[in-house]
């Protein structure tokens, strides 16, 4: 992080920091912003909710990069979200087959490093955020509005006239137990297996059209190049 921010100071480049898991870097990000650097940073649901102390021996479903940190990291990460030092929460969706995850052997050294968290990201975040006193508006800001703004997609990220109707009907009060077999991921491997979560997505719309889980569709999202560039 120090090398990255030193390079930003020398060049004036915009910097975005991926997958912040360690609270040790938060003062560096805050200091860089205070110095006028254009620095943004993200974290992920698994760093905000999973704890190294709770990872069972050989439970390679938890392996990711950076790794899951100790419980001492979590309060500062949440505080950084509340204060704006961390801007957004992203899925870092990195699914893997049971074979690549080495579920049979429990070998962390050779297991794929990544967590398939896309489907569970919203209930995972809502469960943890609501327990800490945050409202659903904060979760939406971290996971929808903020990411769209960061990458310059002004046509989405909020519910208002002129925006794309990418929507979910979200039931914030219903609880459920995570069953890997019920996940829509191609390989239903998850460290959240057996967890009790709050919040259920009842329906989803993409550009105003209902989403059918059995009929995938969508397009690559990209920004137009600025005028005068190639």
Structure write-up:
- This protein is α/β, with parallel strands linked by helices and 230 residues long.
- The chain contains 6 helices and 6 strands, in the order αβαβααβααβββ.
- The protein has helices at residues 2-11, 26-34, 45-49, 74-83, 121-131, 136-150; strands at residues 15-17, 39-43, 88-89, 167-177, 196-206, 209-210.
- The strands form 2 sheets. The chain has a 3-stranded parallel β-sheet with strand order 1-2-3. It has a 3-stranded antiparallel β-sheet with strand order 4-5-6, with helices on one face.
- Helix 2 links the parallel strand 1 and strand 2 (39-43).
- Helix 5 (121-131) packs across helix 6 (136-150).
- The longest helix is centred in the middle third of the chain and has 15 residues, at 136-150.
- The mean pLDDT is 93.
